[in-house]
């Protein structure tokens, strides 16, 4: 198990790499870190592994490389989130990280856009 200091150092390294996508920052949450840009979470760090946001448009890119989805256990059942492991070479190559980070941020933008459209469609209640 990584120490808190190790986790902070790893999160700092990830944020440094992802600056090529935009002014990212990390935020401690649920024993790990969320990675944000423009208020949207597009990455998460758990157990010193980086996971990037996936959706129907980019999921295959991750699956083709055999990258695993982020999964946790809730009530003795595995729960899968819409994040997948980042390629290992992205952790060492700024250009590779920029490409994968941009894919993840695009997925976060699409998810936010869908939420926005859904909330606009809800009828207003009459009082």
CATH topology: Yope Regulator, Chain: A
Approximately what portion of the residues adopt beta-strand conformation? 25-35%
Order of helices and strands: HEEEEHEEH
Give the strand order of the largest sheet, numbering strands 1, 2, ... along the chain: 1-2-3-4-6-5
For the largest beta-sheet, the strand count, sense and barrel status come to:
6 strands, antiparallel
Count of β-strands: 6
Count, helices: 3
End-to-end Cα distance: 54 Å
Rg result: 16 Å
Class by alpha and beta content: alpha+beta
Please give the CATH class.
Answer: Alpha Beta
Proper CATH architecture: 2-Layer Sandwich
Residue runs with pLDDT of under 50 for 5 or more positions: none
Give the CATH H-level superfamily. Answer: YgaC/TfoX-N like chaperone
Mean pLDDT across residues: 90
Word description of this protein:
This protein has 127 residues and is α+β, with helices and mostly antiparallel strands. It has a single domain (4-106), classed as Yope Regulator, Chain: A (2-Layer Sandwich). It is built from three helices and six strands; from the N terminus they run αββββαββα. The protein has helices spanning 4-18, 59-64, 94-121, and strands at 25-29, 32-37, 40-46, 49-53, 69-74, 77-85. The chain has a six-stranded antiparallel beta sheet with strand order 1-2-3-4-6-5. The longest helix is centred in the last third of the chain and has 28 residues, at 94-121. The protein is globular.
